[in-house]
């Protein structure tokens, strides 16, 4: 782990898994500041966010000089060979410029051509700073939720389709289905099955009994991966339908089945994240089943972040 270093009026050090509770507190405070409502984030959310992060090299906790209380955190996730995405979370607005400096410098060291920063909105100081630093907004994501008032209706599938609870033996077909479905997704960076499966099973909250699929004969054509006990209920982590089977109500059927399973398990709240500009019309689908937007995140991009990068042979 990198040692402490001073940057302006702040001291920085790398995060470790022992910092999950500290980072959770910062993330909750940031969300509550923007949304005006209590945050429902849990430690499992932080672990999820950090699954692909080299914490020793690409994460930073910020402390006011002479203090042991962290006031900000940022980490950088490298996606592919040219893109990095950073998540700055600041309890004190004056820490934000330092976080942007740190990740821009690290993006240069890694030779990344593009840098994305994701921030909750509305956050006028953050938006002003990013615009001044040469970033521009390129995408918005919604966090949507529903609070069930009663048992959902029974799932109705078109003829020839069947609904199943996934098993470990279904994992390759599940991965292939989601991978195809997300080829249309903005900035999709596919993972091999082995890497994807390792990430899924490494999660302490892994429970495949909350994964559901729809098959047409022996072929898996739609899949949903849910995580109970997240964000105040059940979190829909992934939902996708193969391209040639869209428009048949399969995604809606998987959602309604998730609602029913959640209700039976005592969870009335279901949430998910969605690209506001989803090419498959996902936002309209979620609204059609009673979900509404609770939180928005904007993604800001700066190109040529790799200028001045260190020489690599």
Helices and strands, with pairings:
Layout: E1 5-7, E2 10-13, H1 20-35, H2 43-49, H3 55-58, E3 59-64, E4 72-79, E5 83-86, E6 89-90, H4 96-110, E7 114-121, H5 124-132, E8 136-147, E9 161-165, H6 171-181, H7 193-202, E10 211-216, E11 219-230, E12 233-241, H8 250-264, E13 269-275, H9 282-288, E14 292-303
Description:
The protein is of the alpha+beta class. Helix content is 30%, strand content 31%. β11 and β12 form a beta hairpin. α1 crosses α2.
For this structure, the CATH topology of the largest domain is: Aminopeptidase
Mean pLDDT: 92
Helical percent range?
Answer: 25-40%
Would you tell me the structural class of the helices and strands? alpha+beta
Shape estimate: globular
Number of distinct helices: 9
- Work out the radius of gyration: 20 Å
Using the 3D structure, state the CATH architecture of the largest domain.
3-Layer(aba) Sandwich
| Secondary structure: number of strands | 14
Name of the level-1 CATH class of the largest domain: Alpha Beta
| Strand content bin | 25-35%
What is the CATH homology-level superfamily of the largest domain? Gcn5-related N-acetyltransferase (GNAT)
- The separation of the N and C termini measures 25 Å
Give the count of structural domains.
2
């Amino acid at each position: 782990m990198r040692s402490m270093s001073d940057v302006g009026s702040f001291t920085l050090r790398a995060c470790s898994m022992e910092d999950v509770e500290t980072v959770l507190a910062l993330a909750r405070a940031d969300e509550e500041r923007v949304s005006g409502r209590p945050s429902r984030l849990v430690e499992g959310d932080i672990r999820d966010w950090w699954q692909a992060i080299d914490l020793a090299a690409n994460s930073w906790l910020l402390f006011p000089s002479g203090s042991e209380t962290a006031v900000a955190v940022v980490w950088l996730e490298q996606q592919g060979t040219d893109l990095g995405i950073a998540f700055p979370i600041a309890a004190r607005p004056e820490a934000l410029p330092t976080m942007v400096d740190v990740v821009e410098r690290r993006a240069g060291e890694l030779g990344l051509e593009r840098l994305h920063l994701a921030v909750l909105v509305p956050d006028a100081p953050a938006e002003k700073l990013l615009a001044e630093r040469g970033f521009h907004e390129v995408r918005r994501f919604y966090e949507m939720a529903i609070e069930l008032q009663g048992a959902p209706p029974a799932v109705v599938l078109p003829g020839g389709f069947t609904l199943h609870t996934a098993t470990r033996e279904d994992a390759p077909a599940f991965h292939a289905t989601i991978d195809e479905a997300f080829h249309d997704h903005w900035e999709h960076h596919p993972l091999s099955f082995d890497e994807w499966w390792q990430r899924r099973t490494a999660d302490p909250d892994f429970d495949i009994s909350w994964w559901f699929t729809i098959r047409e004969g022996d072929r898996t054509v739609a899949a949903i991966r849910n995580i109970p006990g997240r964000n105040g209920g059940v979190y829909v982590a992934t939902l996708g339908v193969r391209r040639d089977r869209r428009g048949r109500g399969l995604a809606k059927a998987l959602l309604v089945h998730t609602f029913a399973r959640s209700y039976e398990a005592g969870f009335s709240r279901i949430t998910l994240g969605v690209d506001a500009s989803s090419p498959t019309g996902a936002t309209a689908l979620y609204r059609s089943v009673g979900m509404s937007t609770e939180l928005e995140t904007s993604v800001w991009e700066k190109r040529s972040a790799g200028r001045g990068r260190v020489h690599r042979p």
